[in-house]
Amino acid sequence: MLQEETEAIVSFDKETTLHVAAQSGKANDYVWKLVELMSPEALALRDRYCYTALHSGAKVGNTEAAMVMLEKNHELLYTLSYCGDLAVTIAAM
After folding, report:
1. Gap between the Cα atoms of 83 and 50, Å rounded
2. How many other C-beta atoms can be found within 10 angstroms of the C-beta atom of residue 55?
């Protein structure tokens, strides 16, 4: 049941709780706890724009959240958004 809760869609844009927490830039304790509970594969869940939570955090420069996610799933670095952007590209914009 906890897995279903951490992976649940919580917004119109098909974001998970991790997407929302990462892009808030202020909930990194919560990000850490979510990442701890989620599987590495679940960290790669995408919203309607094909953003992972790493992309969402990158939009606001949330490097702390990025480090926590990448420690668990380093493959997130190579995940492309709908527009073909890597999270690092989004962070640099």
Report:
1. 8
2. 28
Residue keyed to tokens 């999270």: 87
Give the C-alpha separation, 24 to 3, whole Å.
22
The rounded Cα 4 to chain-centroid distance in angstroms is: 16
Mean pLDDT across 27-55: 94
CA atoms within 13 A on the CB side of 73: 19
Give the three-class secondary structure for 9: strand
Task: Provide φ and ψ at 79, rounded to 5°.
Answer: -85, 125
Whether residue 6 has pLDDT greater than 90: no
Angle at 85 between CA 87 and CA 48, to 5 degrees: 90
Per-residue pLDDT of 58-92, as tens digits, reads: 999 999 999 999 999 999 999 998 889 999 888 88
DSSP state for residue 61 in the 8-state scheme: T
Q: Which residue has the tokens 């701890």?
A: 36
Two structure tokens written together for 70: 């990448």
